[in-house]
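Contributing new records

If you add data, match the layout below exactly. Sequence lines come first and carry their own label; structure lines follow with theirs. Keep one chain per record. Anything else will be rejected by the validation script.
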Amino acid sequence: MHFSYTPEADPDFARMDLPELRINYFPFDPDQFDRPINSFFLETGQDNDDLPLHSHRKGQLVVAAHGSVMCRTPGGLWIVPPRGAVWIPAGILHSNCVSNNGKVYVIFIDPKASPLPTTCCTFTISSLVRELIHRLAVFPPLYPVEGPTSRLARVLLDELVQMSTEQMYLPISTDSRLQHLAASLLDNPGDRGTVEELAARYAMSERTFARLVLRETGMTFGRWRQRLHILVALQRLAAGSSVQAVSLDLGYETPSAFITMFKKAMGKSPRRFLAERSDFVNRELFE
């Protein structure tokens, strides 16, 4: 069951349309389940189902089991890498964009049940957390308040607060010009326009443009575009694209130039970065 929504009815959402991603709708209200934590498994197909930004009373943890997920909030984009998760606190507007044929776990958590962060962030999850998430998704959402399933949920909550964070995040400004620029670069990440050229597109001087990006995102334009490239690369590599294809799509002259950039930013090569997370996506229980 999917809910269709016309993006044109939501100008802000349409402005930040994400290319080559599918926006997937959870066909029920997670807040109706009076339990501290619920885990659900979701598979996506080829259908392009649109959904506006929305929020829940409960917080939401999104875990990629196969393919890639990009979460959008009014303040930025969050990539869910293999063996990773994005945490969206209660009440935060968001929309989850899942690649074709993706497989994800969505875990809803009552804000009173666990002291998780009050701002969006990405996590690296442990093998134990992975197994607990899978196991809890097998049980019905209204599991007995007392019993083995409730104890399992409590263990999962205790483990979640100990997860380490990663910076799989691209800050997005509310400034309409930077919203447009972000959407343009997501649609064409190989655009290598200089600061001077991009400033001219928005009728600004180079200095004014540079100051705007720094003030609104906390990054220089060069660092901000590099972060966008890393997020796009992770999304495409996780979906099965080769390093060579990704490097060309991002406008790098050679794969080695892209690998050097990625290694400098992430501390390891793209191949090694994904290989260290491959046990997550290759486990039979997540297939």
